[in-house]
Task: structure prediction
Amino acid sequence: MNNKLKTYLGFAIKSNSVVWGLDNIIAYKKPIYVIIIDSNYSEKNYIDIFKKTENANAWLIKLKESKIADVINRDNVKVVAVTDKHLTQGILQGTNSFEILKRGIAFERSNKQ
Result:
C-alpha cells in the first residue's frame, strides 16, 4: 500500500471531499475529479461508473493490490470519489499504486522542488 495515497485520502476525508459508494457517486451533482475503485471491484458495476464519468472530466483509477477499506480503515468500502481538485492532483502525481482506467482533466506538473 502506498502511504501517500493513504495520506491524500485522509486529507480528503477530513476536508469532507469524499463521496462514498456507487449510488452516492451516481447521484452526486457537483464535480467529481477522481473515482477510486477497489482492486477486486465487480466488473458489472464498471458500466455505471463509466456512465458517470462519460460526460464529466473525472479520472477513473483502480487500485492494483490493496483495498480501499484497508487504505482508509473503514469496512465495506469499494468505491470512493474525491471532489477536491488539488487533492486529486496529489493522488494522481504522488502515487503509483493504481491502474488508470479512464483519463480525466489534465493536470500540469509543477516544477517546484
